[in-house]
Amino acid sequence: MEIDYNRKLSFLLVDDVQVHRFLMASGIERLNPLIKLDQASSLDEAIVKLSGDTYNAVISDWSMPGGGGGELIRWMRARKHFLRVAFVMISGKNNSEDIIKAFMELEVDAYVVKPFKSHDLLDKVMNAIDKRQKL
Predict the structure, then answer these.
(1) Domains in the chain: how many in total?
(2) Distance CA 48, CA 29 (A)
(3) Is 12 helix (H, G, I), strand (E, B) or coil?
(4) Mean pLDDT value across residues 65-76
(5) Displacement of CA 126 from its chain's centroid (Å)
(6) 10-59, pLDDT tens digit by residue?
(7) pLDDT score of 111
(8) Is 2 within the bounds of a domain?
(9) Does 1 fall in a domain?
(10) Mean pLDDT of all residues in the chain?
(11) Which range marks the domain in which residue 94 is found?
(12) Is residue 34 one of the residues assigned to a domain?
C-alpha cells in the first residue's frame, strides 16, 4: 500500500472498548500520522460527532451496547450529506451470513474481521474512501 501524505483525511473510530479504539488509532497513526482521528465510544456519541464535524470515513464496531454499527450506518445512509463518507464495519463475526448482510442490507463499503493488522485496516479504509468518492 502506497501512502499519500498530501491527502488530508479525517476518520471517526467508533467502538465501545477503549483499548480497541486505542489500538486502531495507534496503528493508523503509525502508518500515516497526518490522518486526523476522532473517537466515539457509543452510537449516540458518534452521531453527535458526525453532526458537528466532517469525516472521510467511519470505522465502526458492529456490536455495541445501545446500538452498533448497523444502526449507525442506517442513520448515516438516511442523510444525503453522508453519501460520500466511507463506512468500514469491524467485527469479530466472521461467518459468511453476517458479512453478506453487512454488504447487501447495510451497504457497508468494507468489512474487517477482528483481529486485524493495521495496514490491512488502513488499506480497506482507503479503498472504501476511493470507492465512495466515485459515487
Answers:
(1) 1
(2) 23
(3) strand
(4) 94
(5) 11
(6) 999 999 999 999 999 999 999 999 999 999 999 999 999 999 999 999 99
(7) 92
(8) no
(9) no
(10) 92
(11) 10-133
(12) yes
